[in-house]
Amino acid sequence: MAMSKYPKLFKYIIVLQQYWQNLFVYRMSFVVWRLRQFLSSFTALSVWSVVFANQKTAFGYAQDEMITYIFLVTVLYNIILSSSLNALSGEIYSGSMSTKLVKPINVFLSLGFQDLAHKILNFGFVILESLILYFIFKPSFIFPNQSYELIFIAWVALAALICFIINLLFGSIGFWSPDSWGPRFLFYIFLDFTAGKLYPLDILPNIIQKIVYLTPFPYMSYVQIQLLLGRLQPNQILPITLTMLAWTVGLILIFKLVWQKGLKNYTAMGQ
Amino acid sequence: MLNFRFKTYWKLFWKFRKIHLMRTLEYRGDLYFWSLISTIWTLFSLLFFDLLTQTGSIGGWERHEVLLLIGVFSILDAFTWSVFYHNMREYTRAVFSGEFNQYLTKPINTQFLIMTQSNSFNNFPRLIIGGVIMHRSLVALNYQPSFWQVISFLGLLSLAGLFIYLVWFIFATLAFWFEKLDNINDIIPSLRQIWQVPRSVYTGVTSLILTIILPLGLMTSIPTEVLLGKASVNWIIYFVVITFICFIFSQIFFKISIKKYSGAGN
Amino acid sequence: MSPQPIIQVKNLRRHFKVYQKQPGLMGSIKSLFKRKYKTVKAVDNISFEIKRGEVVGFIGQNGAGKTTTLKVLSGLLFPTAGEVSVLGFDPWDRKPEFQKQFSLIMGQKNQLWWDLPAMETFLLNKAIYEVPNDQFEQSLNKLVDLLQVRDILNIQVRKLSLGQRMKCELIAALLHNPQVLFLDEPTIGLDVVMQKALRDFIKAYNQEFNATIILTSHYMDDVKELCERAIIIDKGKLIFDGKLHNIIDKYARNKILSLVFSQAVTKQKLEKFGQVKEHKQNGSAYTATLLVPRKKAAAVASDLLKELPVEDLNIEEPPIEAIIREVFQSGNV
Q1: Chain A contact present for C26, CB below 8 A
Q2: Distance (Å) from the alpha carbon of B124 to chain C's nearest alpha carbon
Q3: How many other C-beta atoms can be found within 10 angstroms of the C-beta atom of residue C228?
Q4: At CA B86, angle to CA B85 and CA B91, rounded to 5?
Q5: What does B126-139 look like in DSSP terms, one character per residue?
Q6: CA dist., res. B28 & res. A6, Å (int)
Q7: Region A128-142: what's the mean pLDDT?
């Protein structure tokens, strides 16, 4: 039984390998993506360093704490939110997806592995970038005594899953229109300001925070880092976990509906 | 003779604008959508910096000075998105697909074609919003810039635009050297994060890199400082000189790149 | 004294560096550090002269160097060696005075703005080429009448059919009345009707304006219809320059008849009609290929249809590769 599983997995490893290989050809485009992320964190850190030049604390954070926060959120954000599915809608619309649907390889597993490969690659680079940022900003890290490793890992996995499904949803737009660029752009704009990448969400006024928590954005890296930094109350852990699960399940259900509808539409058009 | 050619370029410039206006009106939905997006983005940035400066100044820039900078940034950014982005994208696309041949065989200066043939109107609201932000910030600062300060401001803002264009152009010209570089055009938009903040945010080595070696950090700060009467002459001179050097380099690089160009495919 | 040739090419050479990559992941990694280059001689010592009003065909296989030569003549590529002169200009200088006098039309490349009526592109080109109003009106009318597109000028290009679009592309490219035309694979991707329409138009344009035209193609038919003179380029070298009918009579002697029969037909029976190149049976399909002298092809075809149980019959030109091979093998003519 175990032996028959091995060749199956091998298929997906090839997917990983081909992905990295293609990336070498497209090395410049990947570099540009990394540059963008790097600059975003860089400017955030620059601004925050200057903010603390005149004051010891701001918004309930000391300089060390803020810098640590930005550093950690940068690493996590880049892992969770890196996606290789940007071209998906185009592939679906043009019909090149149909060959993948016909091959004896589970589409979602294949895409999942592709995404995983992408995240691993991004992880490698973000560590490198963080080293550079470390030498520029020379932060002193603060780690709390008690950390919830298991919950952290679970939350990271859930966040990655949520992100994956959202990207699949954007990809599904391809069943109806070649361009998912518009909605995705809007999504990333909101994400920029609500995922806690540039600043911790608790500096926002309460009203705005309440609105932001209605979206899945705070759960994409913010809550995980706050957990790690010991800035969450123990009684918040369960509600957050449940909310994340709810988002995950809800999005999966929505996606299933959309995907099935899309497939019907797809085959009807003879793609 | 020179006069006659100027007329040609002038006419051609407006012909392109008319064409793009017609195309924009064809796709009104796009226009509304992107206008909305760019407006949302501007407001978010405004909120963020407003929030940030509640606690004090950023690098010696008081709250309304920072907001003034945001206004200046919006105007500059609206311009770079409306003009440079689309032209550079068309430029790189033409180089990759081989359609760049059409630029080279027309009896019009190639760089003029590259620079003016495209534009969008989607960021127009940001011009207005930027202007409003500037006005309100100046009022809040109780500051009335003099006529010459306004002139210098406009001059330096144009120079900033030129510098950004040149850097962008140089990057886009790399399309002649690397294949499959569709993202080359997105490097510069990510760089604009650098001039979204006052230049005093950058210290130490980064200050050296971002305000001297590749002075992207100066783009919005110098014009704003000039408007506020706070600019130092040294920086202004440096700004002008570096733009000039960039211009010379871009011309040389372009000429070399054209020579290398082999026309992709057929 | 004979008039100066419009186009002069002397010992033109154009070489390219092509980068080679090994397959696989290791190949990709290696390519980050070291790249292997190979020099390709796209054009290897070509010389010719073309006089005003001539219509010359460049024939050759794909990659033979035809397009490269055209690009050099239009100023898009600079020669690795040799001299080029068109209308007295060095194309590489790309002087506006020169550019206003020629037009390069490459395959189906578009310059029409997709979402706007073709007329807008015409007006744009009018501005680019500085065409005076009256000349513009005149040229436009002539071209529009020649191509019969008067009623579609104000319809958005994306709503036009492929044929209509092609005609508008031509007008856009010729509005400024170029004296010299470089046409690169103009009929590629077009159906038979459009190919004919295009050829008729080119002929008319040449006669109307006494324009000098160079046409590249790998279809013999294009060149046959339009060009008295042909230049054959193979692997970057010029292997023939002269009257086209010389080549055809001498080297493209035969036409190829492809036949499908409903019943088996013996080889001997077929040999009555021509040289049998192929004679096969694939299950219930009986096929054969015959070589028949060019002049007799039509007559032989009708005989075959009368005497044998023919299901399908196709008459084709020998592929250009075969003709070139023959020319090449027999040396320069």
Answers
A1: no
A2: 22
A3: 13
A4: 100
A5: HHHHHHHHHHHHHH
A6: 54
A7: 85
Q: How far apart are CA A47 and CA A71, in angstroms?
A: 14
DSSP, residue by residue, C236-260: TEEEEEEEHHHHHHHH--EEEEEEE
Pairing between β-strand C36-50 and β-strand C7-20 as defined by DSSP bridges: antiparallel
- What amino acid is encoded at B14 in this protein? W
| Assigned token pair, A210 | 């309440």
- ∠ CA B231-B235-B237, nearest 5°, is 115
Per-residue tokens: C129:
């080429």
State the pairing for strand pair C229-234/C55-59: parallel
Tally the C-alpha atoms within 13 A of residue C294's C-alpha that lie toward its C-beta: 11
Fill in the amino acid letter for B45: S
Asked if A186 lies within 8 A of B37 by C-beta distance, the reply is yes
Residues 6+ apart with CB under 8 A from C22: C30, C31
C219: Cβ–Cβ under 8 A, 6 or more apart, which residues? C187, C320
Probe site for chain A from B32, B202, B221 (most A CB atoms < 10 A): B202
Q: Does the pLDDT value for residue B102 go beyond 80?
A: yes
- Is pLDDT above 90 for C15? no
Chain A contacts to B (CB-CB under 8 A): 25-26, 28-29, 32-33, 35-36, 39-40, 42-43, 46-47, 49-51, 53-55, 58-59, 136, 182, 185-186, 189, 192-193, 198-199, 203-205
Tell me, yes or no, if C30 comes closer than 8 A to chain A by beta carbon: no
Cα–Cα distance list, C49 to C61, C235, C261, C281 (Å) = 22, 20, 50, 51
A92 within 8 A of A143, measured Cβ to Cβ: no
Q: What is the pTM of this model?
A: 0.80
Domain count within chain A: 1
What's the pLDDT tens digit per position in C281-324? 877 778 888 888 878 888 988 988 898 888 899 888 777 667 76
Q: What is the pLDDT of residue B264?
A: 37
CA B27, chain centre distance (Å): 25
The residue-averaged pLDDT of B219-230 equals 92
Phi, psi dihedral angles at C185 (to 5 degrees): 45, 55
Which chain B residue has its CA at the smallest distance from A58's CA? B55
Tell me if chain A has a CB within 8 Å of the CB of C29: yes
CA distance C31 to chain A (A): 9
**Strands lying side by side in the sheet with C212-217:** C102-106, C180-184, C212-217, C55-59, C229-234, C237-243
Q: How do strand A57-58 and strand A61-62 relate by DSSP bridges?
A: antiparallel
Q: Across the interface, do B37 and A29 touch by the CB < 8 Å criterion?
A: no
Domains and CATH numbers, chain C: 53-82+93-250 (3.40.50.300), 253-316 (3.30.70.1150)
- What is the domain extent for residue A130? 2-268
Compute the distance between CA of residue B53 and CA of residue A199 in angstroms, rounded to an integer: 13
Q: Work out how many CB contacts closer than 8 A connect A with B.
A: 82
Q: Which one, of C20, C6, C17, C14, lies nearest residue C98 by Cα? A: C6
- C-alpha span between B194 and B202 (Å, rounded): 9
What lies within 8 Å, CB to CB, of A136 at 6+ separation is A42, A45, B204, B205, B206
| Secondary structure (DSSP) of C135-151 | HHHHHHHHHHHHHT-GG
Enumerate residues 6+ apart whose C-beta is below 8 A from A16. A113, A114, A116, A117
Whether residues C124 and B102 touch (CB distance < 8 A) is answered with no
Q: Give me the sign of the Cα torsion angle C105, C106, C107, C108.
A: negative
Q: Are strands C102-106 and C180-184 parallel, antiparallel or unpaired?
A: parallel
Q: How far apart are the first and last CA of chain C?
A: 27
Taking the C-alpha atoms of residue A133 and residue A141, their distance in angstroms, rounded to an integer, is 13
